[in-house]
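Researcher: Here's the sequence for the chain we discussed earlier.
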Amino acid sequence: MPYGLDFGTSNSAVGCMTENGLVLVPISPGVSNPAIVPSVLFFEPGFPALVGYPAVESYVTRTAGQLVVPLRVVQPQIIETVFGGEYVQFDVAASPPGRFFHTLKRSLVDASFEGTRIGEQVLRLEDLVALILRALKDRADAHFGHVENAVLLGRPVRFSQDPTADALAEARLRRAAELAGFTDIQFLYEPLGAAWHYRQQVRRAETALVFDFGGGTLDFSVIRWAGPGDAGSVLGVGGLLVGGTTLNEDLMEQRLLGYFGAAVTWQGQLGKRLPLPRHIFDHLRSWHTVHQLNQRELMAFLQEVQRVASEPAQVAALISLVARNYGWDLFMVIEAAKCALSDVPETILDFQRPAIDIYERITRREFEQVIAPRLRQIERGLYDTLDEAGITVTDVDVVLCTGGSGLIPSVQRLLARLFGEARIVRQEAFTSVVSGLAAAAAAAAGEM
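Model: Thanks. This is the structure I predict for it:
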């Protein structure tokens, strides 16, 4: 009963094909989709790492109201990497409230990210990824009541255009799986996993475009089947560092920064009116960078600016957002509003906290205007991928659409305009890849 495991940039999942059919392990009980877990870690000082939603909750709780200590120390260390012993220097905060890690999948190609110090431990990137994979394995083993050592891991067709970096990324992911307790490790391209169930319907030579628009990235793949039973071959791949979180950040930037002083001026030296520093608002684009502004000097500056600001209430809202670490709460409200606009023509983004009073009506049309540059970027990326595959739009027989962001109406209209509504097959938004991996793993093991 080998597992299929999807280690994603934003979320991860594990599943298995059993005698009773496909089972997706409920690794995050109590949430709307228990089959997925955020691919994040948080290390509380003196405690083991937390994974997924508990990591986010602890990070938000522990960092609320905490100042980032600017004093830093450099600690040289020799660590073992895939290249052997490497001498590195770690620049570490002297008194951190904890260490939060996200988007680790993107770092697999980065040879310069060799390791980091957590308390008295030095952890390699493989060790960090292994903690997430181990949590998924342990929960799956507990769910099925036995220890399973075989896994089929999804991987991008290309982690990187650089073959050396691509090989490094797969080697690191394999090592992480070994550290997590797996001994029989195989890989399958993620688009082939997403297309697995559709593959069963292939009755002739057919070409598919897999459109996987998730929380962290948008991946395109062109797959060709020669006929029934063919495993399929990948003709071309492409992708963008654009995901559902990117669209949330765009909403924050274009509709909500004004609540936190984007247009505020303050009286500087010689009576000149000055705007707030731009880097502040760059940090407000992502929930996990908001807390980085909570530094003693900057907070003292903002408190001083509040006295002479054109809109002191907006500066007070900014101070509250940063000092109380409301970034996660605010972006969850933004996420909910974005999702609601897939079903209704307008919604209210309502966020009330001490000194913060946001009541913003957003229509679907306005949201589509916000993300219009992203849609143009997506269209260019699609054409680039088709060019790499050596085909045109008319050569695509079916578009397999997966990922939660693929449900956005303007994205659906884009695909329908390019390929025609009849060619679009909408798969399960969040778990089609892991479902396909589990089915492929069972087929390879002769369990089906």
